[in-house]
Amino acid sequence: MRIPFGGSCPAGSVSFVTFCTLPPDASWKQIFVSPLRESVLPSASLTFNFVMVRRGRTLIHLFVLCPAILPALNLLHDLLGRLPPDLNLDFKFDLCWILIPHARSLSGFYIYTKAAAQDSGEQARLDAVKATAPPTGACVRFWYHMHGSRMGKLTVYTGDEKGGLGPSRWSKKGDSGDYWQEASINIYPGSEFQITFVGECRASYGNDIAIDDIVVLERQCSSYASFSDLKCDFDSKSFCAYNNSQNDDFDWILNRGSTYTGVSGPDVDHSKGDSTGFYIYIKAMLQNPGDQARLDAVKATAPATGACVKFWYHMYGSGMGTLMVYTGDGKGGLGPSRWSKSGDSGNVWHEASINIGYGLDFQISFVGECGRNAGSEIAVDDIIVLEGQCNNKATFSDLECNFDFNAFCAYKNHPYNEFDWHLHSGPISGPDTGPEADRTTGDPSGFFIYSKVSRYMQGDQARLDGVKATAPATGACVRFWYYMYGGDEGTLTVYTGDGSGGLGPSRWSRKGDSGDYWHEAWINIYPGSDFQITFVGEGSWGYSCDVAIDDIIVLERECDSTVPLSDLNCDFEPGTFCAYKNSQNDDFDWILNSVV
After folding, report:
1. Do 285 and 363 reside in the same domain of the chain?
2. How many structural domains comprise the chain?
3. Is the bond into 189 cis (omega within 30 degrees of 0)?
4. In this structure, are 36 and 108 located in the same domain?
5. CATH code of the domain covering residue 188
6. C or N: which end of the chain has fewer Cβ atoms within 10 Å?
7. Residue 46: is its pLDDT beyond 50?
8. pLDDT tier, 292 (very low <50, low <70, confident <90, very high otherwise)
9. Contact at 8 Å (CB) between 538 and 458?
10. For residue 394, what are the CA distances in angstroms to 160, 348, 466, 525, 543?
């Protein structure tokens, strides 16, 4: 009895449809010549389900079961137990993958999960027979279709050495558009594997997951990832298009909530901001200082406009190590580091971005390096790759910082400092030279940053760099509060270089004791100029001087107060007019010139 597509069949009947050529020795096929009936089944017509039987990779039979209720399922299961042992049976009591005509051809077939008939969270699992990859490795390719406003999730596994599913190798969640898309997974050379597709439902009509055209090649996948493949928030409980390297000391792991130690790492992910969201991190416990965990993405190619890699990182802990990001050409080597961060960055998530050159092949690699103890758990979340170069210039709101979120905001310690700026709340330990409270709240619970310049030699520097920004046509005003109290002569200097690497000329500076209270200072930024705020604390040879900063703000106008005399100094070397501008009430203008 052949069941037409989209129809139903009489209650209690079990039939089969043969659509592949049977092998000559298939005498057992006579088992299912006649329909089976159960008198206990209801008389109403119900939707049918399917069961597939295969010999190796060859699909032999399609069984149609009507209705899909337990007595008939048990009966069919008993009969199928008499099949030869070399046949692989895809048969699930909770939810079946269903064969129907392919959209590209009414005579073709694909499989899909019927979400409307299931509860949210129910899964359909499709297992392949086990196989072994050759020394050249293998490539699993398949096409998937996931279209719907409440689409579920498709996850692919390739098994582990214990016979379990192992970690997810590929996952997709949500609407991917009303068309077929290709995906591929590399299988490591010589490894045993078992392909498993798991479709997870969100109970909603018209949100079915479909698969077609599965093929396994005896070589590694050669296709490059799309930028959508490289996007990953890890909330699908998978590494997406990222894989732990075989050439490192230990691995990145998926996690949600607090880390194992509880004294380092995040408490929540960045995507959701709560303990249900997932992120990846390195578990530093039981590792040695300097041990590295490397995570490699699938190769990709930047378009002619270039590309921008954005991600969020969390580096909080007393023994914090280093996070490095590489964008090698995917031929094996990492290439030079494109981004690096060391030390404690506070118990908050920070965003970072890296430009990819125009038309270049690239492979993103995250390398986490353990610090001096278990308090060096580094986390990463929300990786995304965009077409076009990154906009690495900050808005003025980005540059505003009162440090009360226990974070440096858009400011960071320079990697080649002799010593650093530190976040702090309350009195500073040691000689009574630092503030008792922050400037924002006037309370010991408020945060500020400070540099203990009295502990270092004259000439030693602690440099804090802001993100680059551009002043509007009206100019800009940088305001901040500073605290310098103590008998020794430490120095605080502020620069507003153009962000190309050099500090440029000093724009503001103070040396020595300024009294036991907070002072306000301001610096004008020239109209239309690029700038990067840099605070530099310099050592004093003594033991009684701390420099503190709080409440940095940048306004889209020039400062109200009269400029300090140092602002009037100008040698025009930065290629700007400094504090000078051409008048609107004259006949023509002064112009910048160079003898080069």
Report:
1. yes
2. 4
3. no
4. no
5. 2.60.120.200
6. C
7. no
8. very high
9. yes
10. 45, 19, 9, 15, 37
